[in-house]
Amino acid sequence: MTLIFYSANDRWDDWADHLRREVPEIPLCHWNDDGDDTAVRFALVWNPPPGELRRRFPNLEYIFSLGAGVDALLDDPDLPEGVPVVRMVEEALVIGMTEYVALHVLRLHRQQRELEAQQRAGEWRQIATPLAPDRRVGLMGLGVLGRDAAQALMALRFDVASWTRTPRKVPGVTGFHGAEGFDAFLARTDILVTLLPLTDATRGILSQNVFARLPRSAGLINAGRGGLQVEEDIIAALDSGQLSEAVLDVFSTEPLPTENPIWAHPKVTLTPHNAALTGSETGAREVGANLRRVLAGEQPHNIVNPKAGY
Ligand code: NDP
Ligand code: OXD
Questions:
Q1: Could you tell me the pTM of the whole model?
Q2: In the prediction, which pLDDT does 48 show?
Q3: I want to staple 195 with a disulfide (CB 3.0 to 4.6 A). Which of 71, 136, 138, 141 is the partner?
């Protein structure tokens, strides 16, 4: 009964230390170590080489994702059939994402980019911005991350709405859902924050068609996935003034190629997919709790619904 670990981003030694503390009874192995692949029952991975989980580990029981988003895993046509995928839900991701959303909503709200340009130009000019209760923030996605971000935005007194796949009720948040709620949600959104998973239903959703339904000069923050956005449409909407600014943490191709015009666009704030990073200690705590559930004959929490894709 072994757990195998694979990630090009996360530190194996950190994870191994924390996991050993959490589940000393489960032997750990790095993907590149020599070992008995037939003993592997659990995989803890981020972007493993496609096809390899199925090819190497015939007795795999659960695939634990090191990230909250599982689109890359589910995109693997050779993912082992019938092996449940468990997504990452843990405190560091939640806290990090809420910090990111609050930071950038406030920057857009207070027109900080313009003030910084004025500083560079040596220009002293007050910009009067509305107060938070008069700024309508729309969250696409009100899941684990969206709900926490919504609480922080409400504490700052923003007027917060959400758009989800199924009806969701969070006190203080005006909820919209599905195709029938989309127009009304967009029409009342000054700052659009995307915390959606990438699925067949959400791919390319941040397009001209959506930007045109936002109030003119709306701001956009996408910390969900790059595949949600049509980059040419974002550039066109920024250039036409339909969008005032875009804050983009995620891209279809990562790292974003140096020749991509988004790098140098004057109305774009670009961050390198670091809105929220899984913590090894907090993450291992959650994975450990899930592994203990499995060892006790229970189901782990946060199993992905393969039909919905998240
Ligand atoms: P959850 O699964 O908890 O929440 C997903 C939310 O999206 C739910 O509210 C869900 O609706 C909604 N949703 C899904 N599909 C649709 C659809 N077709 N139409 C409308 N709403 C939809 O995910 P998390 O909050 O944990 O994470 C969200 C995403 O954030 C991840 O999938 C990942 O891509 C991204 N992420 C990015 C990071 C970064 O650093 N940039 C870090 C971590 C995550 P419903 O409530 O009805 O189910
Ligand atoms: C995640 C991510 O999904 O890092 O956790 O994007």
A1: 0.97
A2: 96
A3: 141
